[in-house]
Write a structure and sequence with these properties.
CATH architecture: Sandwich
Largest sheet: 7 strands, mixed
Shape: globular
Strand content: 35-45%
Radius of gyration: 16 Å
Order of helices and strands: HEEEEEEEEEEEHEEE
Number of helices: 2
Distance between the termini: 23 Å
Length: 192
């Protein structure tokens, strides 16, 4: 993947509102405040998670140690399921807590790369690259912990999360679900 890829997307630009996930994420965190403190008092493999319909998975956010730059969330993919295809201006490390599967990653004009993962894998989709996560286990969930520099980018007003155009929204406002069409390894980045 290109290291020199440039992005200039601002979360408050009107042209981004229809594909942004930020409003849904913020409403989720108002209704279900992130877990605070110095430590998560639960086993990440087993703790209860809540539906995140905009991402087609379950999850929970953490706000540990009053950190202002780093943020984290735990996400769970349904058996045989997948997340929505999306990209974000934050950098992210993704640690696989449970399960096995793969992620598809690419920029608009580049070939799709497949990252296979299992419990204990750590990887990072590049900033503003499209990515989508797939659980290969048809009988059990998969979980990953994402650690991102969300606080920094929000402060700078550069935070943006965008759904891929193939991910069709059903509903309005923050009360919507996403028909999360799976990407393929041969996806060329062009809209149909």
């Amino acid at each position: 993947m290109r290291k020199d890829y440039q992005f200039g997307v601002l979360a408050n630009e009107k042209r981004n509102l229809s594909s942004s996930e930020i409003a849904a994420r913020d409403e989720f965190n108002r209704t279900n405040p992130p877990l605070e403190g110095l430590v998560v008092p639960h086993d990440l493999r087993k703790m209860e998670l809540l539906e995140r319909p905009w991402r087609n998975n379950r999850g929970y956010f953490f706000d540990l140690a009053g950190n202002e730059v780093l943020g984290a969330h735990l996400a769970e993919l349904k058996p045989g399921g997948h997340s929505t295809r999306h990209r974000h201006t934050t950098e992210a490390y993704i640690y696989i807590v449970k399960g096995h599967g793969y992620s598809l990653i690419n920029y608009d004009d580049e070939p799709v790369q497949r990252v296979d993962w299992s419990e204990g894998t750590l990887f990072s989709p590049p900033r503003w690259a499209w990515h989508q996560h797939f659980n290969l286990d048809k009988d059990d969930t998969a979980r990953y912990l994402a650690i991102q520099d969300t606080g920094l980018l929000r402060t700078l007003r550069l935070h943006q999360i965008e759904r891929h155009p193939t991910q069709l929204v059903q509903g309005e406002g923050t009360e919507y679900t996403v028909d999360a069409a799976p990407a393929t390894e041969t996806y060329d980045g062009e809209d149909d």
